[in-house]
Specification:
The chain has about 550 residues and is α+β, with helices and mostly antiparallel strands. It folds into four domains: about 60 residues, lambda repressor-like DNA-binding domains (434 Repressor (Amino-terminal Domain), Orthogonal Bundle), CATH 1.10.260; about 120 residues, Alpha Horseshoe (Serine Threonine Protein Phosphatase 5, Tetratricopeptide repeat), CATH 1.25.40; about 140 residues, no CATH class; about 210 residues, Gcn5-related N-acetyltransferase (GNAT) (Aminopeptidase, 3-Layer(aba) Sandwich), CATH 3.40.630. It is built from 25 helices and seven strands. A seven-stranded mixed beta sheet has the order 1-2-3-4-5-7-6. Helix 8 packs antiparallel against helix 9 and helix 9 runs antiparallel to helix 10.
């Protein structure tokens, strides 16, 4: 056999790389220098005859293959011609090659592949037994290759496919998890899905594609791109699901903001109403469905409400854009339909603090209530009423002090009254109790005495109504007032007083709206007074029950 140094050098280089050796590591195994390996691979020299056998073993090829014998090329050509005539003829060609070189990895792999192809082609009943035999051989041979080359993903893939073809789905999935390539592993496992699981996976795949395109359209944030996003959801996600409704809520809000930026107030209010309708539809879906929307994941701890309206309500209470007057109609609708009032319980002190911090104390304006019910507090009220001296360095320390104060006041039963809330979130607070229980509301006692109230009258004082900034004058004040008046009737009060103050940090329009509310509810202005030292003007309104 005529030698061809360059051809032999190329064979050594290709097999070395295939087996994962560097020139240094191969040289170390053969006890030669790396320069010797380099000269072999470039065809400058040939390996010593004493090194041919150990070199062939390290590279896992025969000496004949190492030396580039024509026999290997003949087998290769014979196999390529045989593939034209089908898998069984190609399998015979593999057998011939392996008879001459039993360790030829390429032909070992080809043999197993041909066996797998024969075992999976056709569906004639008469061939079932024969196909089963070929699949068994394929399983055995792929298993041998996998054991010998455990990091080769191709052998893992075909062994898993062979398991699946033989009906061993569990083994197939388990083997698939051995794939090092994540994308290949995922596709392989997906191919083993069956029945409803397969349908669900196909739907999830479609949904993933829709979401990707949807996100791109939202990112452009133009009227054209958002209109296209609406069309995409209408065409691709016609079914009412948590995912589709979640996407629609987001799209409606996004479109509302775009309309506002363009001066389209009608489109703004219409889109907000659509977002609210979608949130209600989201919450109306069956409760036994497993949720996997981002909104629900963030709010899974909320048990008393469903997440659609809850999240939308939080959005309305915090987003600056939704302070726009054009959002007021939908805010009023939300308040009317979902906000409810109840007593402020001691365990709700943290919810009350969060209400103040998130929805009231914007731009570092803090007010955790300046008047409290004095009933059954004893000497503890002295400490609670002492406003702490705030540090000048960090707002974080200030917040901690305020939080501790609220815990003492609400958790200790000092602050009472009712809240307007949905789920775990408070959006409004009304501080009320018997008139005699208050002594820190800022109006001198002689000014609070009302001669028109008969002796023995039982008077309730409403000293404070606080509402989330974005929800002012949207109906929460009226709900809180109605609840307080009903409490007064149930508890046998004869009169109810309320003390609006012009010095409060309220805009004039909102202040006039509150006065109008008191008048509608039957309150009448009894007295006006001023505190010149504090530049404050007080009013006392009273209602006879």
């Amino acid at each position: 056999m005529q030698r061809n140094e360059k051809r032999i050098g190329e064979i050594i280089r290709r097999r070395r790389l295939h087996k994962g050796y560097t020139q240094d590591t191969l040289a170390l195994e053969l006890h030669v220098s790396p320069q010797a390996i380099s000269k072999w691979e470039t065809g400058q020299t040939m390996p010593d005859i004493n090194l041919l056998l150990p070199l062939s073993r390290l590279l896992e090829i025969s000496v004949d293959q190492l030396l580039g014998g024509d026999r290997r090329a003949e087998f290769e050509a014979e196999y390529r011609r045989a593939t034209i005539f089908g898998h069984k003829i190609a399998l015979l060609a593999c057998a011939d090659a392996l008879n001459a070189n039993p360790d030829d990895e390429i032909f070992l792999y080809r043999r197993a592949c041909e066996e797998y192809d024969i075992g999976t082609e056709g569906d004639h009943p008469a061939l079932h037994a024969e196909r089963g035999s070929y699949l068994c051989w394929a399983e055995e041979h792929f298993s041998d290759l996998h054991k010998k080359y455990p990091e080769n993903d191709d052998y893992i893939v075909f062994l898993a496919k062979t398991y699946y073809a033989k009906g061993k789905r569990g083994d197939a999935v388990e083997m698939a998890y051995n794939c090092r390539d994540a994308e290949k592993r995922s596709k392989l496992i997906d191919s083993f899905r069956e029945g409803e699981d397969k349908i669900i996976h196909q739907q999830e795949t479609i949904l993933t594609g829709v979401k990707a395109l949807y996100d791109i359209l939202l990112e452009y944030n133009t009227r054209e791109s958002l209109t296209a996003a609406y069309a995409l959801l209408d065409d691709m996600l016609t079914d009412t699901t948590h995912d589709s409704l979640n996407m629609r809520i987001e799209l409606h809000i996004k479109f509302a903001y775009l309309c506002l930026s363009e001066g389209d107030t009608e489109g703004f209010t219409t889109s907000l109403a659509s977002a609210y309708d979608a949130a209600k539809a989201y919450d109306a879906l069956p409760k036994d469905v497993t949720y996997n929307s981002p909104l629900y994941d963030r709010l899974s701890e909320v048990n008393r409400v469903r997440p659609g309206v809850f999240c939308l309500l939080d959005c309305f209470a915090t987003d600056r854009e939704l302070e726009h007057p054009a959002a007021k109609p939908i805010k009023k609708r939300i308040v009317d339909e979902v906000i409810g009032c109840s007593r402020l319980f001691r365990h709700e002190w943290l919810a009350y603090y969060q209400f103040c911090a998130r929805y009231i104390n914007r731009d570092n304006y803090r007010n955790f209530g300046l008047a409290w019910n004095m009933e059954d507090v004893g000497d503890a009220i002295t400490e609670a009423l002492q406003r702490p001296r705030y540090p000048d360095n960090t707002s974080e320390e200030v917040c901690l002090i305020e939080k501790q104060l609220v815990e003492r006041l609400v958790g200790g039963g000092v602050m009472r009254g009712c809240t307007a809330s949905y789920g775990n979130n408070i959006y409004g607070y009304c501080n009320y109790a018997q008139k005699e229980k208050y002594c820190h509301i800022g109006i001198p006692d002689e000014e609070r005495a009302i001669p028109s109230a008969p002796e023995g009258s039982k008077i309730m004082s409403i000293v404070e109504i606080m509402v989330a900034n974005n929800f002012k004058d949207c109906g929460i004040e009226e709900k809180l007032l109605d609840y307080a008046l009903e409490e007064a009737r149930v508890c046998g009060y004869t009169h109810v007083e309320i003390y609006p103050k012009e010095w409060m940090e309220l805009d004039k329009e909102y202040y006039r709206s509150l006065l109008s509310l008191y008048e509608r509810k039957g309150f009448r202005l009894i007295r006006e007074t001023e505190n010149e030292s504090r530049s404050r003007r007080y009013q006392i309104w009273q209602k006879v029950l």
